[in-house]
Design goal:
By secondary structure, the protein is an all-alpha fold. The chain has 16 helices and no strands. It has one domain: Up-down Bundle (Growth Hormone, Chain: A), CATH 1.20.1250. Helix 11 packs antiparallel against helix 16.
Length: about 425
């Protein structure tokens, strides 16, 4: 049974300040909001640490760009499996419990990445980190989407996505600090070990975050009826269309994003010949744009609708990626272009959590949302490796641009093949 699509929610507050809507949230909404934003920020920090150690690994271990790309792809591929598994477990055992396990998991394997003694060990550590990385989003986005009132759902999940930019910024700061204090051969290990910090968030989640009411009511109804939803339900009509096109939409968004962000530090260092500190400045402009894009994307999704927001940001991202990677500019121009690059590449994600939450019914929302988003992540995970391979035949910037632009085109088309869900009220 599908959730009701009724949009009879109160009108937005007359206060149009960007974050004024947070004052409308109740105590439980705020606790969940804090936990999910914090969790995704710390998840983003742990994942993005890898992009900063690629040059050191190439120099220290003598690996190729293609091998470095495969390491990045391994984490993303396993994150797709982790997201699907976490979504299934979240439907069976609860969103909050799975969120806690996911946070502990990716923090532990980020730390263990710093202890790897060879390429194979690092591959295993990054793949295992990916399981928790995917699981955190699957559990956290469903949890937040079910708790937050419909009129603020897009904005709340947009700010949750903005936590990624905060985590990315933290990774860049740690990178600049640690690589300026230690030789590259040991600095990359210390940088990975910083990734243990997210484990402390679990204490907050355990104390202040509880299961969504719509989820507990759904579980009670299913138990009373003796109904046991199958994880395979999402592959049957009428949900099959949502699963397929939702997966393609996720492929476009994540393929484009990871093609850019995985390789950008290397692009700045090897093709633009910037130092660690200089490239950090460029990245912070990009990260600032990403934060603004995440927040703005959520606002646009709540005001103009999910699909129109996807179209605006996908087209903008394709244009800016082409400009940034394929047209020769001076360093100053590239610095300023970093802001719109981050803005549009990040903004495509803001409405996705809400869109998936509203398209799947509560009974299979975890597994549906986890699979669709992470199918996109699995296919999008191939993009960093393909960029690495293609860069052996052409400049790295051109390789990034080709895959990113094709990805955003895929996202825009897929989003418009799914129904608009703005204002949808969830039901058990």
């Amino acid at each position: 049974m599908h959730d009701s699509a009724t949009a009879t929610t109160p009108s937005d507050s007359s206060d149009h300040r960007i974050f004024s809507w947070i004052s409308d949230l109740g105590p439980q909404e705020r606790s969940v909001f804090t936990a999910c934003v914090g969790g995704w920020a710390l998840d983003g920090m742990d994942v993005q640490l890898y992009s900063f150690v690629i040059p050191a690994l190439i120099a220290t271990w003598g690996i190729t760009r293609a091998e470095a790309g495969v390491l990045g792809t391994a984490a993303l591929l396993f994150s797709s499996l982790g997201g699907w598994l976490a979504g299934y477990l979240a439907d069976r055992y609860g969103r909050v419990r799975v969120l806690q396990v996911s946070i502990l998991w990716f923090a532990a394997f980020s730390f263990l990445s710093g202890l790897a003694q060879n390429y194979q060990q690092l591959m295993i550590a990054r793949a295992m980190l990916g399981l928790g990385f995917g699981g955190e989003w699957a559990a956290g986005s469903v949890l937040l989407g079910e708790v937050i009132q419909a009129r603020h759902r897009g904005k709340a999940l947009g700010v949750m996505q903005a936590g990624w930019a905060v985590g990315w910024g933290a990774a860049a700061l740690f990178n600049a600090l640690i690589f300026s204090m230690l030789p590259a051969a040991s600095a990359w290990r210390a940088l990975f070990m910083v990734g243990i910090l997210p484990a402390f968030l679990v204490f907050f989640v355990r104390r202040y975050v509880h299961e969504p009411e719509v989820y507990t009511q759904s579980k009670a109804k299913l138990a009373a009826a003796g109904d046991h939803p199958s994880a395979l339900e999402i592959f049957k009509p009428p949900l099959l269309k949502v699963t397929i096109f939702g997966g393609l939409m996720g492929t476009g968004a994540q393929g484009g994003y990871f093609a850019v962000t995985t390789w950008l530090p290397t692009f700045l260092r090897t093709e633009r010949h910037l130092s660690v500190l200089d490239s950090t400045g460029y990245l912070f402009v990009l990260i600032a744009g990403s934060f603004c894009g995440y927040v703005s994307g959520g606002i646009v999704a709540d005001r103009l609708g999910r699909r129109l927001a996807f179209l605006i940001f996908a087209i903008g991202a394709a244009i800016v990626v082409f400009t940034y990677t394929m047209i020769p500019f001076g360093d100053s121009a590239m610095l300023f272009l970093g802001f719109p690059l981050g803005f549009f590449a990040a903004g495509v994600f803001s409405g996705m959590g809400a869109f998936y939450t509203e398209n799947f019914p509560t009974r299979v929302r975890g597994v549906g949302q986890g699979f669709a988003y992470n199918l996109g992540r699995a296919l999008g995970a191939l993009f960093p490796a393909m960029v690495g391979l293609l860069s052996a035949r052409m400049p790295l910037g051109e390789a990034i641009g080709i895959f990113a632009i094709s990805a955003y085109g895929t996202m825009a088309i897929s989003a418009f093949l799914l129904p608009e869900t703005k204002g949808k009220v969830l039901s058990a």
